[in-house]
Amino acid sequence: MSIRGILFDVDDTLIDYAATARIGLLGHLRAEDQLWLFESPDEAVALWRSLEEEHYPRFLAGELTFKGQQLVRTELFLAHIGIRVTDPSAWFADYAARRDVAWITFPDVPPTLRALAGQVALGIVSNSALAHQQDKLRSVGLLDHFGDAVLCSAEFGTAKPDPAIFLAGCTMLELPPDEVAYVGDRFDTDGLGARNAGLRAYWLDRTARGVAHRDGVTIIPSLVELSATTFASGLDTL
Ligand SMILES: [Mg+2]
After folding, report:
1. Could you tell me the fold of the domain covering 5-16+104-237?
2. In whole angstroms, what is the distance from residue 116 CA to residue 20 CA?
3. How far is the centre of ligand 1, averaged over its atoms, from the C-alpha of 185 (Å)?
4. CATH for 17-100, among 1.20.1260, 1.20.1300, 3.40.1000, 1.10.150?
5. Is the pLDDT of residue 230 over 90?
6. What is the distance in A from the centroid of ligand 1 to the CA of 72?
7. pLDDT tens digits for 194-219?
8. Start-end ranges of CATH 3.40.50.1000 in the chain?
9. CB–CB of 200/1 below 8 Å?
């Protein structure tokens, strides 16, 4: 059975979210004269990231709105340095404005997508909001690869690893799950989630030394493994 479609995660798979968020955060802290209140830039970035890891899932679970989780993260982050701002949403908006002009892709992404275009159907399944992800993909010139095949949890109603959103992604591509690969950077959410929904699961682990297999998930160190050349020689046999 060959693979006729590939669904991608966005953040830290196609877009270097971690690097871009760092640029936005440090630029904003410098502009606000708040960076010196942390022991180091790395400490500020690590705290910001840990608050996101803790509170973004509350948005995915429906406990907080997209904006609500931004405000909680901002208030807790600033409380760490003893600052209380009257308008945390304005603080977050200024951070986001710096981040949103800095989105970058990983170097293997544009050539891989160009090579796959026309060979297989391409789509997105993302735990985020549609307009936000479309803007992000458009800003780095990737949105045209996916057209209308962009599915996000905020509009769909459930988030990865719920099998329903993976299956809806397959429906979006008009393909059965066993002919669709899913590629993402989180082993549990993306890899095991896609596997449990019956898709071909690929975990993108950019620290891996080569292609490997674990628990029904194929581990790939870069998207180069998805290039048309490799695809032609049998992506499904990796
Ligand atoms: Mg991701």
Report:
1. Rossmann fold (3.40.50)
2. 25
3. 5
4. 1.10.150
5. no
6. 21
7. 999 999 999 999 999 999 999 999 99
8. 5-16+104-237
9. no
Grouping H, G, I as helix, E, B as strand and the rest as coil, residue 105 is strand
User: Terminal CA-to-CA distance of the chain, rounded, Å?
Assistant: 13
- Tell me the pTM: 0.91
Q: DSSP for 206-232?
A: TT-SS-EEETTEEEESSGGGGSHHHHH
Ligand 1: centre distance to CA 125 (Å): 10
User: Looking at the chain, which residues constitute the CATH 1.10.150 domain(s)?
Assistant: 17-100
> Among 104, 95, 100, 79, which Cα is nearest to 26's?
95
Q: Find the 60 Cα to ligand 1 centroid distance in Å.
A: 13
Which residues lie closer than 8 Å to 159 by C-beta, 6 or more apart?
Answer: 60, 61, 127, 153, 165
| 182 three-class SS | strand
